[in-house]
Design goal:
Elements (H helix, E strand, L loop, with lengths): L4 E5 L10 H12 L7 H10 L5 H9 L2 H20 L9 H10 L3 E5 L4 H11 L7 E3 L12 H9 L8 E5 L2 H10 L3 E5 L6 H7 L3 E3 L5 H5 L8
Parallel strand pairs: 1-2, 1-4, 2-3, 4-5, 5-6
Helix pairs in contact: 1-2, 1-4, 3-4, 4-6, 8-9
InterPro entries: HAD-like_hydrolase_sf (IPR050155), HAD-like_sf (IPR036412), HAD_sf (IPR023214), PGP-like_dom2 (IPR023198), PhnX-like (IPR022468)
Protein name: Phosphonatase-like hydrolase
C-alpha cells in the first residue's frame, strides 16, 4: 500500500556530504586539543557511526561531558560556516522526490543526526524550509539514531494511523536500524552516502537503492501529472 509517511535522512541521502562532516569533526577535535596522531582512529569511528547524533559521537570519543560539548559546539560552528559559504548542495533528484511523494498524498519528514540549528541552516541554504511536512533533529525527549525516536516522533506529530504505513530511507546502517526499531516495514538504504550495499544489507535494509530518486518507484508511488 502507499505509505502515509516517508522519513528521509538528510546528509548523504537528500543532501550531498562531500566530506563536510569529516572536515568539521577534524576542526572540532583539533580545537579541543586532541593531538593529530589520535585523529585517524577517531575519524574511523566517525565513519562507522555516520547518521548518529553528533554529541553522542563526541561523548563516546572524548568521555568528559564538558569537552564533548565544546567539541560539539565547534563542530556546529564549522559545519554551519561551510553551509553558509556555499558548501551545501542537494543530491540530484532529492527535492523532486519529496515533491512527488507529497503530491501523491504522502507526508514527508526530514531527519538528521545534526543539531536542530545545523539542520535549519541546511534547510535555509537550500531553500527547503517548506519542502517537507516536518524537519526533526535530536533534542530533549528525542534521542538520535540508532534509537527509533526520530521516526516515532515524526509519526506522532504527523498523525500517522499505523506504523505499518511508514517508510524510512537513509544512507547509513544507523538509519536502517532506526527504521527497523521503530516498526517501519520499509527500511531503504541508498548508495549516495556513507554506507555500502553490504553495510546496508547487513543492517537489515529491505531495499538498497542507487539514490533517493528511486524511492517513489520502490514504494509504488507514481508521479502525478505535472510533476
Amino acid at each position: 500500500m502507499t505509505p502515509e509517511l516517508v522519513v528521509l535522512d538528510m546528509a548523504g541521502t537528500t543532501v550531498a556530504d562531500d566530506g563536510l562532516v569529516e572536515r568539521a569533526f577534524t576542526a572540532a577535535i583539533t580545537a579541543v586539543g586532541v593531538p593529530a596522531d589520535r585523529h585517524p582512529p577517531m575519524l574511523d569511528h566517525v565513519r562507522r557511526t555516520m547518521g548518529q547524533s553528533k554529541i553522542t559521537v563526541f561523548r563516546a570519543l572524548l568521555g568528559e561531558e564538558t569537552l564533548a560539548q565544546r567539541a560539539n559546539d565547534e563542530f556546529r560552528r564549522v559545519y554551519e560556516g561551510l553551509v553558509h559559504t556555499g558548501h551545501c548542495v542537494p543530491l540530484p533528484g532529492a527535492a523532486d522526490t519529496i515533491r512527488v511523494l507529497r503530491a501523491a498524498g504522502v507526508k514527508v519528514a526530514l531527519t538528521t543526526g545534526f543539531a536542530a540549528g545545523t539542520q535549519h541552516a541546511i534547510l535555509d541554504a537550500l531553500g527547503w524550509q517548506d519542502l517537507a511536512d516536518l524537519a526533526l533533529a535530536p533534542g530533549p525527549g528525542v534521542r538520535g539514531r540508532p534509537f527509533p525516536d526520530l521516526v516515532l516522533t515524526a509519526a506522532l506529530r504527523l498523525e500517522v494511523t499505523d506504523m505499518r504505513a511508514v517508510a524510512v530511507a537513509g544512507d547509513t546502517p544507523s538509519d536502517i536500524r532506526t527504521a527497523l526499531r521503530s516498526g517501519a516495514p520499509v527500511a531503504a538504504g541508498v548508495l549516495t552516502g556513507a554506507g555500502t550495499a553490504a553495510d546496508l544489507r547487513a543492517a537489515g535494509a529491505t531495499h538498497v537503492l542507487d539514490s533517493v530518486s528511486d524511492l517513489p518507484t520502490a514504494l509504488g508511488v507514481l508521479p502525478c501529472e505535472g510533476n
